[in-house]
Amino acid sequence: MIVKDSLKYKPRIAVDVRPLAYGINGNSRYLAEILQRVLNENSPLEYYLYSNKPVHPVFHEITKKAPVFIPSRLPGLFWLNLSMPSAFREHRIDIFWGTLQLLPIFGRNIPMAVNYHDLNFHSAPETMTTANYWQHRFFSPLTLKRADKIFCLSKNTQREIAEFLPSVAGKLQVVYPGAQGFENVVPPNKILPKNFLFSVGTLEPRKNLNTLLEAYRTLKRKNLDYPFSLVLAGRLGWKSEGLTEILRNGSLESEGIFFIENPSDGELGWLYKNCSYFMFPSLHEGFGLPLLEAIQEEKPCIASDIPVFHEVLDSQIDLFVPPKDTEAWIKAMLEAGDRGVRLRDGKSRKWSWDSTAQEVEEGLVTLWKNRKRKPGKIEE
């Protein structure tokens, strides 16, 4: 992917690659797919990658393509505001691209872009840890004001930000994710039943997996011959200690519930390709990349009835369910059981990571071309 734009000078752009330190999740996949496409000698920008923690081995091929700096072991917020401004000066950085919804509030006055996947501290605070909530409650408004460009994962996120802080509406740009299927799929080490419902996500309250589990267990107690098992996959998160314990120890496998912890890309691809239905019970999402990945694999989907899923995937989802309504989830799973195993009629529209990467890089190039000196203080 090459942005067709020529600049007399090749600006140096610092990228916050902390999402790549935690393995595969929605944030890291979005960033990794973009970096895979923009890190090349023909790019109009010169990329420098920064993290306060080592990059996860699964992303090492990406980080071979650009300088990677880990200048500090400070916690993220302190690293961002204390270490990064020094790195900007040392490496003569021209632009900063923040990928975790936060920017350094002080330091060198350079153009800055930031990704916003959601506005959970405002719209779904109950799903966050206390520390994370207060961090974003205080620093997100400052970040939104300081940013010159704000990449939103969906129109729903764009709308939420514009309503929360109308003064930044002109900085917002929607850049949808892509999906392209999985290569080199491999089955998980755990033996799974042939027919299964599948859901993937970090174990945290926002993913609403407790409701899905409660619905499935209730259904199985009443319908012993129900044809589908339930497979959950993902990494450990927060505020889900009880759920984590019962999934990890395998005590639910006798009820037909299986857990794959930290699946590789190949294992994740196998689970998508072999599931009978994909279930996505989230309370709130910036977009919902796993849902898009399931649709690209032509799998029928049962998802929460939340605005972002109607935005671009409305006609592709088989059933919408009120997210906290256990009885409605039971009814939806019964309907899936009655239909049996099937594929969708056809693939959805083309969701291209090439297009996503091009839009982001073009946005960064435009940011550089339109740069101007800003006062040191943050203004409305």
From TrEMBL:
Gene3D superfamilies attached to this UniProt entry: Glycogen Phosphorylase B
Molecular function as annotated in GO: glycosyltransferase activity
All copies of domain Glycosyl transferase family, residue ranges: 192-335
Pfam families hit by this protein: Glyco_transf_4, Glycos_transf_1
EC number: 2.4.-.-
Residues of the Glycosyltransferase subfamily 4-like N-terminal domain: 50-178
InterPro entries: Glyco_trans_1, Glyco_trans_4-like_N
Enzyme class: transferase
Protein name, UniProt field: Glycosyltransferase, group 1 family protein
Record GO biological process: lipopolysaccharide biosynthetic process
Source organism phylogeny: Bacteria, Pseudomonadati, Spirochaetota, Spirochaetia, Leptospirales
Keywords in alphabetical order: Glycosyltransferase, Transferase
Organism: Leptospira inadai serovar Lyme str. 10
